[in-house]
Specification:
4-stranded mixed sheet; GMP Synthetase, Chain A, domain 3; 2 domains; Rossmann fold; MeTrfase_TRM5/TYW2; elongated; 8 helices; TRM5/TYW2-like_N; tRNA methyltransferase activity; alpha/beta; binds S-adenosylmethionine
């Protein structure tokens, strides 16, 4: 892969050096993200006038059908809303760790930086256990558990559009016998005291959902609690907040593991803590 990239970069530079002012050639993106057949390019503002041509050249040389301009991810559904620079079809199937993820890359977040966590979830799951994924997306974290470990999964996703891909992915990966999807706000999910494992793959406001996760969990269960944490509060956070809220709801906690997923913003990290909870 690295070798391919080394060959691609000079080729792109060579083509565009005939078309761009010389001072702009050095500002061409040196890194990009490829999800299935869709490319996400970080483009600097000074390249605005040339953005469509640049996208076309990257698409042709790398071999992508569509190119998007990297932008901000935001809102309750963590939508991307990336600008389409080249091509039109933003839906693709991305294969990672033997899992087929179909998604609309222009609208739905799929972070390459979370790959380790998606792989790790396949490793920690146990055959037959019941996993409730409270923020399922297109099955980012829970498909690997159902596919590779034979875990039973209840996947809850609030956005109707993202949910439509979640349902397709359950079919695509042949796990309809053990994975069920619900299009609802996880706060309205009626299941109580059912899960061996709960996934809380969300950021910024995840702590607000801890009481619900505890009510879904069995009296003894493991919760994978993600959140964004200012660096100055680490390493005490985010476990301290989880522990406090769990205690208020009658649970003891044991921290099993803690990992940094990625930098979320300057001075803010996306962290995951694996917590074993016991009802007192
Ligand atoms: C950031 S994505 C993460 C996907 C995956 N869990 C991961 O960590 O890679 C979070 C997903 O949770 C969904 N979501 C947000 N609030 C929700 C809620 N209250 N109930 C169910 N789904 C929700 C969003 O629509 C989005 O698809």
């Amino acid at each position: 892969m690295a070798k391919r990239t080394q060959l691609i970069k000079p080729r792109i530079r060579e083509i565009l050096s005939h078309e761009l002012p010389p001072e702009l050639v050095n500002t061409l993106p040196k890194h990009w993200v490829q999800i299935g057949e869709v490319l996400i390019l970080p483009l600097r503002p000074e390249l605005e006038a040339y953005k469509h041509r640049i996208a076309e050249v990257y698409a042709r040389v790398i071999g992508a059908k569509t190119v998007l301009r990297k932008g901000r991810i935001g809102g309750e559904f963590r939508e991307t809303n990336y600008e389409v620079l080249y091509g039109s079809d933003t839906v693709t199937v991305h294969v990672e760790n033997g899992i087929k993820y179909k998604l609309d890359v222009a609208k739905i977040m799929f972070s390459p930086a979370n790959v380790k966590e998606r792989v790790r979830m396949a490793e920690v799951a146990k055959p037959g256990e019941l996993v409730v994924d409270m923020f399922a997306g297109v099955g980012h974290l829970s498909l690997p558990m159902a596919v590779h470990k034979g875990a039973r999964v209840i996947a809850i996703e609030k956005s109707p559009y993202t949910f439509s891909f979640l349902v397709e992915n359950i079919e695509l990966n042949g796990v309809w016998d053990r994975m069920t999807a619900y299009n609802m706000d996880n706060r309205d999910f009626p299941g109580e005291n059912i899960a061996d494992r709960v996934l809380m793959g969300y950021v910024v406001t995840t702590h607000e959902f801890i009481p619900k996760a505890l009510s879904i969990a069995k009296d003894e269960a493991v919760i994978h609690y993600h959140n964004t944490v200012p660096e100055r509060l680490m390493p005490k956070e985010p476990f301290e907040t989880f522990q406090r809220i769990a205690k208020e709801h009658g649970y003891e906690t044991e921290k099993l593991n803690e990992l940094i997923i990625k930098r979320y913003a300057p001075g803010v990290w996306h962290v995951v803590v694996d917590v074993r909870v016991y009802k007192r």
